[in-house]
Design goal:
The protein is of the alpha/beta class. The chain folds into six domains: 111 residues, CBS-domain (Roll); 92 residues, PAS domain (Beta-Lactamase); 98 residues, 2-Layer Sandwich (Beta-Lactamase), CATH 3.30.450.20; 164 residues, Rossmann fold (3-Layer(aba) Sandwich); 78 residues, Helicase, Ruva Protein, domain 3; 57 residues, Orthogonal Bundle (Arc Repressor Mutant, subunit A). 41% of the residues lie in helices and 20% in strands. Strands 8-7-11-10-9 form a five-stranded antiparallel β-sheet. A five-stranded antiparallel β-sheet has the order 13-12-16-15-14. A five-stranded parallel β-sheet has the order 18-21-24-17-25. Strand 5 and strand 6 form a beta hairpin. The chain starts with 11 loop residues before the first strand and ends with a helix.
Length: 711
């Protein structure tokens, strides 16, 4: 602590010309014994009250100047000096007062002996408070006793640990509350040495106690007991032993593993390998590989997938030392933090595995098909169980269709040709609970002159060649049911008027009939045309549009649900398998990738037709690219992702053009998937390893970071 905090700044300040009368008046006002004599704010000396008393005893006039009484030999200290330095200066000068100066050597104040004593008392009190706070904040329990073994201090930790009430603990003999400590306290007071780590049982707990002597001026005046509950240590010891056992089990399991296994830390340094890994990489001793980076020992393995991108690798075929290997890897986590990664390499007898895997592929395809059939049978009450999809847009469409089915309003389904509008219309009818039939009419397939008789029927003898007894129309057949008007945009205007009347009145007359027929029919319409545009062009009645356009459902085209293509391919292949003697397992990844890049103007109907044709031309268990119709031109098909084509230049050759196009495809796919590499690989129909290699080859990460940072 500094001098300035304990200096008396209310001091007497006199000049060389001040009189004895002025000095006495200043002493009485400030109630001090000395005064400072300054000139131009600089100290020239001091005058003591005793010097004035002696001068007055010698008959000095009270109005005489104080100059003869000034003491110019002054002990000074600086305001930023420590209290210990101030004490030493005053003891050395044998004075009870010292003048305190600032940085400009001007008088800051006066330090008296009482100021010094008060400062030391404050320092002592601060030290005691700090000591108490320190003892209270310790995790260890602390108890102190004096030389008579009476308790002098303790902290809250001690009360909690020993389950004591501190109300009557101070000055109590140690025997009364803590008799097991007596022996070691006496030994500590007697020898003045520390008695360390004594195991003591007390109140059904086991504690470790250390006894430390307390000294004052080289004399033992008490002792301190430091206690700690050893339960936590025993738990840690048990955990360490369990960890050692688990490591021994892991080591044994790795050695028994048939394949190569390596474990890495989070920066890629190898921490554990088994003999299979060492055999594959021709390593004789573990010391040669432990601590080495995985890329140095096994550069063929893309360890960055799990170390940098937190991705699993389920199983990729990678050649290692001219030997085909199946490599799998995954990151290791604890409490959300990545600890490292583990790599497994299958390299023994892969030829024998090949036949097994092919057989498993076939079985898996069959199981997938029969599982789907079983699901549809078990869910046959679901109106859309026959719709094959896992796309989120389609799932939302199904939910909306179920809601529409429960209503009584007319529904219009829009979507491109081949999207399955009729399937959904029938599903809506089945879910609606209407007791009548589901009647379909293709408004674009019936000649205009026959449309009216098809819709409303005709009476007996209505026209030449009419069927005897007449014929009911579609409205009568759909009574209490649903009439599905497919391609309603192709309905001629003359029939639109009559249809509007039936929708409004729920009644009509057969051709040639004289009586009115009442019906209860719900209308579901479908079209691939823009009806609003037809209304604006005068080709479709506006009032009819609003009558049928109560609930609109839009089916997304196949190009907007590319994730359904693998599922649809499996469904159609299995469907065709059941009709023929052939048994195709499925389509190759390259075909899936090409399908997901094609725009599919004919949608699902076109996909099924393409697969059916390829099915018949395939002579293997898989449908490959050469089996597909060449008119599709799939190799040059526009992708579902808008590509940035490189600007043509004379200098660019064919290989550079292909590389640039491939780079843009990968880059745009990554952007579409928000940088998620698993989804990107799935979208492109390639493995994650191949995707990582292309990212590295084309330096795509730099462009991707720039695009994400700018967005």
């Amino acid at each position: 602590m500094k001098v300035r905090s304990f200096t008396t700044v209310n001091f007497v300040n006199l000049s060389l010309n001040s009189t004895i009368r002025e000095a006495i008046s200043a002493f009485l006002e400030h109630r001090v014994d000395i005064g400072c004599i300054t000139e131009n704010n600089k100290l020239t000396g001091i005058i003591h009250k005793n010097s004035i008393y002696r001068a007055l005893l010698h008959n000095t006039s009270i109005d005489d100047p104080i100059r003869p009484l000034i003491n110019e030999s002054v002990i000074t200290i600086h305001k930023d000096q420590s209290l210990l330095e101030a004490r030493d200066i005053m003891l050395k000068g044998n004075v009870s007062h010292a003048v305190v100066l600032d940085h400009n050597q001007e008088v800051f104040g006066i330090m008296t002996k009482s100021d010094l004593v008060n400062s030391h008392m404050a320092v002592l009190e601060d030290t005691i408070n700090r000591m108490k706070s320190l003892i209270e904040s310790l995790q260890d329990a602390v108890i102190t006793v004096d030389s008579n073994l009476r308790i002098t201090t303790f902290n809250q930790t001690a009360l909690d640990l020993l389950q004591l009430n501190g109300k009557h603990l101070l000055q109590a003999p140690i025997d009364r509350f803590l008799p097991p400590f007596r022996r070691w306290l006496i030994e500590t007071l007697k020898t003045g040495t520390i008695q360390d780590a004594k195991r003591i049982s007390f109140n059904n707990i086991t504690i470790i106690a250390s006894f430390i002597p307390i000294r004052e001026i080289n004399r033992v005046t008490g002792a301190m007991v430091v206690l700690r509950d050893v339960t936590s240590y025993e738990n840690i010891a048990n955990e360490l032993e369990t960890t050692k056992q688990l490591k021994r089990i892991l080591d044994s399991a790795l050695e028994l593993a048939y394949d190569g296994v390596a474990v890495m830390n989070k920066v890629g340094h190898i921490t554990m390998v088994n003999h299979g890994f060492m055999e594959l990489f021709h390593i004789e001793h573990q010391d040669e590989v432990l601590g080495q980076h995985i890329t140095k020992i096994a550069p063929q393995i893309p360890a960055q997938l799990s170390l940098e991108f937190d991705q699993k690798m389920e199983g990729e075929l990678i050649p290692i030392h001219n030997q085909k290997c199946i490599v799998a890897q995954m990151p290791i986590y604890q409490d959300g933090q990545r600890l490292g990664a583990i790599i497994k390499i299958i390299f023994r007898q892969l030829d024998a595995w090949k036949d097994i895997l092919l057989h498993m592929d076939k079985l898996e395809s069959e199981i997938s098909y029969y599982r789907g059939e079983l699901y549809r049978i078990s869910k046959d009450t679901h109106p859309f169980a026959h719709v094959v999809s896992q796309n989120s847009q389609m799932e939302k469409f199904k939910q909306d269709a179920v809601i529409a089915a429960k209503s009584f309003s007319n529904v219009i389904i829009t979507g491109e040709s081949g999207t399955g509008k009729e399937l959904f219309a029938e599903g809506i009818h089945n879910e609606s609970g209407r007791k009548g039939a589901f009647i379909k009419v293709n408004c674009g397939a019936i000649p205009e002159e026959l449309l009216e008789s098809e819709f409303f029927g005709y009476a007996d003898g209505a026209f030449t060649g009419a069927k005897k007894g007449g014929k009911p129309g579609k409205f009568e057949l759909a009574n209490n049911g649903t009439l599905f008007l497919d391609e309603i945009g192709d309905m001629p205007p003359s029939l639109q008027v009559k249809l509007l009347r039936v929708l409004q009145e729920q009644e009509f007359e057969r051709i040639g009939a004289t009586k009115t027929t009442k019906v209860n029919v719900r209308i579901i319409s479908a079209t691939n045309k823009d009806l609003i545009q037809l209304v604006n062009q005068g080709k479709f009645r506006e009032d009819l549009y609003y009558r049928i356009h109560v609930i609109q459902l839009h089916i997304p085209p196949l190009r907007e649900r590319l994730d359904d293509i693998p599922l649809l391919c499996t469904h159609f292949i299995n469907k065709i398998n059941t009709k023929t003697n052939k048994n195709i397992i499925g389509v190759s990844p390259q075909v899936i990738r090409s399908f997901q890049q094609y725009h599919w103007p004919g949608n699902i109907r076109q996909l099924e037709n393409v697969l059916e044709r390829a099915f018949h031309f395939s002579q293997t268990n898989w449908i490959e690219m050469e089996h597909l119709p060449k008119e599709l031109n799939l190799h040059e098909a526009p992708t579902s992702i808008e590509l940035k084509r490189p600007e043509p230049t004379v200098a660019i050759n064919r290989k550079q053009s292909i590389n640039q196009t491939e780079k843009q495809v990968v880059l745009q796919a990554l952007l579409a998937c928000q940088g998620n590499r698993s989804k990107t690989a799935e979208l492109l129909g390639i493995s994650r390893t191949t995707l990582y290699q292309k990212i590295k080859k084309y330096h795509i990460m730099e462009e991707l970071e720039v695009k994400f940072s700018s967005s």
